[in-house]
Amino acid sequence: MRDFSNDMENLSLNTATVRQRWNLEQIIDGCARHGIVDISPWRDQVADCGLEKSAKLIRDAGLTVSALCRGGMFPAADARGRQAAIDDNCRAIDEAVALGSRSLVLVVGGLPEGSRDLEGAREQVLDGMHSIQEYALSCNMPLAIEPLHPMYAADRACVNTLKQALDMCDRLGEGVGVAVDVYHVWWDPELREQIMRAGRSGKLFGYHVCDWMVPTQDLLLDRGMMGDGVIDLKKIRGWVEEAGFNGKCEVEIFSAENWWKKDPDEVLKTCIERHQSVV
Fold it and tell me: Can you tell me the distance from the alpha carbon of 45 to that of 19, in angstroms, rounded to the nearest whole number?
């Protein structure tokens, strides 16, 4: 069983964690200075910096890329919108390859505008993923479905449990797995069972950590630093280790009124401390 606490080699920073005050170039420099060897950048940050420049900065700093955030958003009200999503996901695959990313995270999308058909939206997700799967395989780019908390079912992701995501993986087959974000799945009574299922099938592609604050002030932008909330991070980490996960422990914190306002160097120091003591 792998233990990825107390090991900087196993820590990754999702660049959203300090995005408010640092651009991607500053984040890469900050991670290098603090000894964080892996990042998971967002596509908008990469676009602002430039794809070729981003890839060079990452290489020159000696960093690796655990995942690119994000593709997905497949459902749409008409065929034109669905094709636009497919085209954008193919571009995301190209960007992930250029960055040397080990996976592309997919936030699959919610209900099309004007729709109440949740099952139909999930079928659109499957159709969209099937449309990009062959291209992703040809590029050797794993696709990681990230199930989101049910509060996002309407607008961000109609895949809301790890079981749903893995059922999709079973239908799609090769090259598709899951990213487990504790913020979205910590509440699930089937979580351990489904993490083990992902491990047995070789579908556990990513593991993201933060914490759930009580009370939560904003359902999108009030994630907590690890140890500040109510998620039993050590227990879930133990399950992930037991399942044989051999990737990075990725810190991903959206915190508009707290951590995004702090000195990013302080944020990185705290991430490292909590990774070693809490996660």
Answer: 8
Q: Tokens in use for 191?
A: 């979580």
Place of tokens 């504790």: 182
User: What angle is formed at CA 207 by the lines to CA 23 and CA 1, rounded to 5 degrees?
Assistant: 135
CB 243 within 8 A of CB 204: yes
Q: Average pLDDT for residues 140-156, to the nearest whole number?
A: 98
**Which H or E element spans position 47?**
helix 43-49
At 134, the pLDDT band (50, 70, 90 cuts) reads: very high
Q: What is the pTM of this model?
A: 0.96
8 band by pLDDT with thresholds 50, 70 and 90: confident
Cβ neighbours for 234, distance < 8 A, ≥ 6 positions apart: 278, 279
Name the 3-class secondary structure at 215: coil
Cis? peptide before 21, omega within 30° of 0: no
Contact (CB, 8 A) for 239 and 196:
yes
CA-closest candidate to residue 247, choices 38, 98, 97: 38
pLDDT averaged over every residue in the chain: 97
Helix (H, G, I), strand (E, B) or coil at 193: helix
Segment 186-194 long-range contacts (CB within 8 Å, at least 24 positions apart): 186/212, 186/231, 186/232, 186/236, 187/149, 188/161, 188/162, 190/161, 190/162, 190/163, 191/162, 191/236, 191/239, 192/239, 194/161, 194/162, 194/163, 194/166
> What per-residue confidence (pLDDT) applies to 122?
98
pLDDT tens figures, 26-37 = 999 999 999 999
